[in-house]
Amino acid sequence: MNDASTAARQLAGGVSLHAALGHAAAECWPALDRAIRDLPPQDLGSYVAPAGRWLQWHWNAPMPSLRRSGNRWAESESATVIALCHHDGWVRAAALDLVPGSPALLPLLIVRCTDWAAPVRERARALLSEVPAPALAACAELVLLLARREQGRFAVDLLDRGLREGPAAQVEALLTSEDRATRRFAHRIAVDRGLLAPGRLARLAAGSGDASLQDLCADAAIASMRDEDHDDVLGVLLTARNGRVRAAGVTALRRTGRHDEARAWLTDRSGVVRACARYVLRQGGTEPLPLYRAMCTGEVTEPGAAAGLGECGDRSDAETLWALVHHPAAAVRVHAVTGLRALDAVTRAGLAPLIDDPSSAVVRAATRALLPHAAGFSREWLSERNAPDRSPAVRVAAQRLLRAAGYARPVG
């Protein structure tokens, strides 16, 4: 695929639209529209003639039409493309009459629906209203891209109506689109139409890397599940890799009356999941703080317990967390630091040794906690840890703290 400027020059030279653009991405069409208008006269060849030479008026017609006799506009597809993107609005409007029956020109018809000239825009919209819904759905990515324009809603509304009223297969085909906006649009319509079973919605939420789709599908799965769907839906949501999805599953335990099962997620690695688990337990009559305190004494096997204790405990729990800062498991040390931050119990002297911790995760957690206390470090102490013989994690920590302390330039 050529860039828009190259494609515009090729079209002016008579190359076909397919040869110039190939399988063009959505953003290529508005770019081509601009590139053709920006072509210098020497690149336009015979197309540089004044627009009036290519137009003819009929006494009873509301707009002019393109001259057919001896007129290159009407002789080839490439000429029509240039006319559709012409700087003169009357030429663009007249060229629209050549679009029906030419599927390759549909993207430019969609572009013209956002035209700044009202006569061009209205004519293009009238023609687009006659386009079959499946053809418009195939251009969904372009339609949604142009929706950002001031006049971009018309095609979106047309697409929306076509997908809501058309066959389910039309929506299904867009669910796996490579374009994020198209996937989101199709999933919203599929959810509204009830096209997706609760179990499938749960799997979509768990398998998606898009936060918007995770929320949409998880919420829809929970809202639509029946008693017989509980295990299928919750089993997928609760074991999802993404914390947002697990949080939705944990919250749904309350709806199904399975409050006590939330105990298993009190120590989740995600803070939002831990918060949802505490909420569900409280709704079921169980206070989570004693559970956390019990988990953080003796042999700690669940690292997230330390963070949870800080999130719902009080300053009296800081002593327990300070003891866990020296736990042999790096994950416990990380969560202990997180818990101390939640309790606002961080001290520079207490966490400074963790800057030299062998675990990079612990170093990062300690650095975040110590940034507000950076002014208390001496420049010499930090510069020593920015030396070339230190690990990358320690050097990055030292540089961040040097900047936070207001030192002009890290040494090393």
Can you characterise this structure?
The protein has helices spanning 4-12, 17-21, 28-37, 41-44, 77-84, 89-95, 106-112, 118-128, 133-137, 140-146, 153-165, 168-174, 180-193, 198-207, 211-224, 230-237, 243-255, 271-283, 288-295, 304-312, 318-324, 330-342, 348-351, 360-370, 379-384, 392-405; strands at residues 55-56, 65-66. By secondary structure, the chain is mostly helical. The longest helix has 14 residues, at 180-193. The model has no long low-confidence stretch (mean pLDDT 88).
Net shape = elongated
Mean pLDDT: 88
Q: Tally of extended strands?
A: 2
Radius of gyration: 31 Å
Sequence stretches where pLDDT stays below 50 over 5 or more residues: none
> What structural class do the secondary elements suggest?
mainly alpha
Instruction: Tell me what portion of residues adopts beta-strand conformation.
Output: under 5%
Strand-helix topology:
Blueprint lengths: L3 H9 L4 H5 L6 H10 L3 H4 L10 E2 L8 E2 L10 H8 L4 H7 L10 H7 L5 H11 L4 H5 L2 H7 L6 H13 L2 H7 L5 H14 L4 H10 L3 H14 L5 H8 L5 H13 L15 H13 L4 H8 L8 H9 L5 H7 L5 H13 L5 H4 L8 H11 L8 H6 L7 H14 L7
Antiparallel strand pairs: 1-2
Helix pairs in contact: 1-3, 5-6, 6-8, 7-8, 10-11, 12-13, 13-15, 14-15, 14-16, 15-17, 16-17, 17-18, 19-20, 20-22, 21-22, 22-24, 24-26
